[in-house]
Amino acid sequence: MHILPERIKSLRNVKRQSQKEVAKALGKSREAISKYELGEREPDPDVIVQFSKHFNVSSDYMLGITDHIENIPSSERKPYSSELYAFEKYLKNQDFIPYLELAVRIKDSNIEINQFEKLLNKLIKQEKKQKHT
C-alpha cells in the first residue's frame, strides 16, 4: 500500500472522523475519500493540499517525504468554505460565546432548527413591536 492512502486513513481515524465527514469538509464524495484511502484513485495536488490543511499537517508528511508531522501554524490555515471563513470572525469574538453555547445546547437537545427559527423570529417581531410602541 502506498504511503498517501495510509496517511489519509490514519489521520482521519486519529481525528475520529468518518469518510463522509472528511468528504464534506473537502467538498468531495464519500466514495472519493474511500478510493483515496484504498489507493484506487490518486488525489490531484490541490486535493492533497486540502487534506494537509484539514488534518493540519504538511503536504510533505501526506506524501511520505517526511515522517515528521509538521503542524501548520493556525495563522497560516484557511477555512475550506466561505461560510467558515465568514464565521471565523465570530469565533474569535468573546461576546459570541453565549450564542455559540446556545447553538450547541440546541444541537445537543435535538431541537429541529426550523422550530427554533420560528420561535426566534416570533420573539424578534414581538421585540420590534414593543420598541415601536
If you had to describe this structure to a student in words, what would you say it looks like?
This is Transcriptional regulator, XRE family. InterPro entries: Cro/C1-type_HTH (IPR001387), Lambda_DNA-bd_dom_sf (IPR010982). The chain is mainly α. The protein folds into two domains: 3-76, 434 Repressor (Amino-terminal Domain) (Orthogonal Bundle), CATH 1.10.260.40; 93-132. It has eight helices and no strands. Helix 2 (19-26) packs across helix 3. The protein is elongated. The protein starts with a helix and ends with a helix. The mean pLDDT is 83.
Number of helices: 8
CATH superfamily of the largest domain: lambda repressor-like DNA-binding domains
Strand content: under 5%
Provide the number of structural domains.
2
How far apart are the termini? Answer: 71 Å
Model regions low in confidence, pLDDT < 50 over at least 5 residues: none
The secondary structure category is mainly alpha
**Helix amount, in percent?**
55-70%
Observed structural traits:
single chain; 133 residues; mainly alpha; 434 Repressor (Amino-terminal Domain)
Compact description:
This protein is mainly alpha-helical.
Outline the secondary-structure elements.
Elements: H1 3-14, H2 19-26, H3 30-38, H4 45-55, H5 59-63, H6 82-91, H7 97-108, H8 113-132
